[in-house]
Amino acid sequence: MTTTPCDEVDDETFYAPLRDASDGSYKFLCDGEWRSASAAADHPAGASSRRPNVVTNANPSRSNAPAFSFQACTADDVDEAYERAKMAHKRWARTPLHERAAALHRAAALMRAHWKPIADALVAKSAKDAKAEVARSADLVDYAAEEGLRALSEGGLLHSDAWKGTSRCKLCMVTKVPLGVVLCIPPFNYPVNLAVSKIAPAIIAGNAVVVKPPTQGAVAGLLTAQCFASALTGMPPGLINVVTGRGSEIGDYLTSHRGANCISFTGGDTGISVARNARMVPIQMELGGKDACVVFPDADLDLAAAAIVKGGFSYSGQRCTAVKARSISTLIADALVEKVIAKVERLTVGQPEDDADITAVVSAKSADFIEGLVDDALSKGAVAMTGSWRREENLIWPTLVDRVTDDMRLCWEEPFGPVVPVVRVTDEIEALRYVNESKYGLQGCVFTRDVDRAIRFGDAMETGTVQINGPPARGPDHFPFQGFKDSGIGSQGVRNSIECMTKTKSTVINLSAPSYAMGG
Ligand SMILES: NC(=O)C1=CN([C@@H]2O[C@H](COP(=O)(O)OP(=O)(O)OC[C@H]3O[C@@H](n4cnc5c(N)ncnc54)[C@H](OP(=O)(O)O)[C@@H]3O)[C@@H](O)[C@H]2O)C=CC1
Ligand SMILES: O=C(O)[C@H](O)COP(=O)(O)O
Predict the structure, then answer these.
(1) Is 210 in the pocket of ligand 1 (CB under 6 A)?
(2) Closest approach atom of ligand 2 to CA 319
(3) Which of 50, 58, 72, 359 has its CA 20 to 30 A from that of 335?
(4) Which residues form the Aldehyde dehydrogenase domain (predicted)?
């Protein structure tokens, strides 16, 4: 990554305020200060809660050994974060747009200058992927600053005389105004990128944020926040607040809080209960997926095989946009399976620091779940095509499971691991049934050389995005990104997030007499 010499401070000094000198745990951010959690008795779980005031997460690649400790924020901490954010937003909304954009550019530059500790905190991700996530995120912040300048400086003007029976005596000026405080909740798999994809659009639009990072990924989120906090020096201090703790403990309190004026959430089915908790505020929900890859007989099989391996096994299958089902015509199934196997067998399995292609999945619970799906499929007649099933602790060897049928859980459930099921279909109708009977509708991809068929099939797919002749992907990050059905509500992508995090305001000028431009 090209670093910008935007400050002379070394990483250790830059991130030093985050650490508690007594126990080395990471503090949380409120009102521009790095703090320790308040007394445990204030915890949302109740005064009788005996939990410690720090949470320790695990390193999946080191037998789930303790990785980092950080604050278990209490209800009081959450209340204060919202209160400070609200105060900061009032001032920030009156800050010129170009100053807001400049602050975001500074944050991006600081992320590039101090990227290494952030990448290192992504302990489960291969070194190259961790570095790429930080670089991609800094680019997103820059892009949001630029997009905000364009999107937020334009408004609308309506004349009343378009409405039957009305003269041109009213002018309606339409502008976008901030919502207030945006609650940002990213998932463990992209704790930096999916944090900034919420924070940057919110901030450029004049909002303040309260961020709740995932437990696995909390420290990467906190270090990223320090780049924003430093970039915002001199601005209202409570613009970015980060409260940490387990979602199961503070999640409901955060999402049902009166202080949240918008919730932007990315994660699994938890999002459905978050949507129920939200109090009449705009919500942006990016949830799970079961992205299908449909390969027709006329497809370029080498292209399709490469996409299946990239789509199915990148970051060990722990992407919402991973290929999680594959329907292929029985006419070409054997040839395609063979090509995929050849590529899967070249994937390396091991440690993140060695840049292995496949690394340990996030938790033992997740590995157990994946194993359960595979066991179920194999017991009902499916076939593991890439050697025998192999798992050591959280590490799962990449597995292609062929001849999956609709009585198997693997056909419908999201593994979130390096396992790709193959469903053989006889025709387009059957392939479409597998796509559309899924409760998810995030993305899907179609491989064919027939453009008519690609468009026809893509139009019929009930998914937020269709990729033609390419694997599912959220990026580049300015593309609209949305799930249908249980995969989400609303749309991400920088422009759409800015839209979601603003509301429309009309100011109507009532003239004493109609006025027609050039009508004098
Ligand atoms: N569509 C998309 O854009 C994406 C979807 N995903 C989906 O996310 C899932 C994997 O991510 P994962 O992090 O495990 O998802 P989870 O839904 O378990 O967690 C997501 C976030 O929600 C928090 N959380 C947990 N409980 C609550 C609660 N009651 N209220 C509010 N927040 C809560 C978590 O905190 P904590 O970690 O402390 O529990 C975490 O920060 C997969 O299903 C995947 O498909 C992932 C990436 C992108
Ligand atoms: O969380 C995810 O899975 C990300 O949205 C993946 O992003 P990508 O599809 O651009 O890799």
Answers:
(1) no
(2) 3
(3) 359
(4) 55-506
